[in-house]
Protein: Lipoprotein
Organism: Niallia taxi
Amino acid sequence: MKNLRSIRFGILSMFILTGCGSIGNESQIEEQEKKNNHTESVSQKDTSNSSLEEKNLVDNNKEISVDNATIIETQASFVVKYENARELVDDSEIAVEGVVVSTENYVHIDKETAQGYPYTKLTFKINQVLNGDPSLEGSEILILEEGGYITAEQDGMDEKFPDLTEEELKETYLITLNGHKPSSKGDEMVAFLNGYGKSETDFKTNFDYYSFIGAYQAKFDYDKKSSKYMRPAENFDVMLKQARTKADKSFVEEEVEVEEGINEEVTKLVNEAR
């Protein structure tokens, strides 16, 4: 089984998993972070009909406005790069099609370091099981997705910078992975998932959960215009304009071909299951 290395976030001092600054350059992750078994978590729920980023977060009955939250884009490269649907099916416990019923901000805090890592907890209703346990069809599961909202205090800034004011510690940030925002309520998607305990990077919670096997590589949002399931991708138009050599341009064109191919395969997987 291929493993995705753990993804860690930080506001003022981030753990970055890549050095992808130019076309065609991808750094390899040399070492894996050790999982800390002593953890605690903060959960903040979005009970509205709108997406999480448009509403307020509630922490200990105190509202935190995130309408103007600072967006911080973390960069990550992956040990495993999924280029076709078969690889995703083989590496996942279940492959499902469905809709995000609700979202909830979830901050995982390491007690030893007081460092918080933001996730978005998705309540996901399964419409179709494409691979895996067929009894899950029609049920709801919880998915922890990398990225989400976190306050400076949750990020451990009170320990690192004791002179910060209470107002500064309450400042809220939206952490995105390679510029891709977490899922929102109402999103229709195909998800390739593993349950808790399948990866050595999993951490304990007071609920059972699934996670995407390759972060956003393993989720495909339904596009109504094309009637296809498409995963988040780079802005290839911009990359082509920035390409300085034929080799760079060829690299981008190959990436476009890979994305178009895997989107077609996942869409076919859904259509054949109906």
In short: The helical segments are 85-91, 157-160, 166-169, 236-242, 246-273. The longest strand covers residues 94-110.
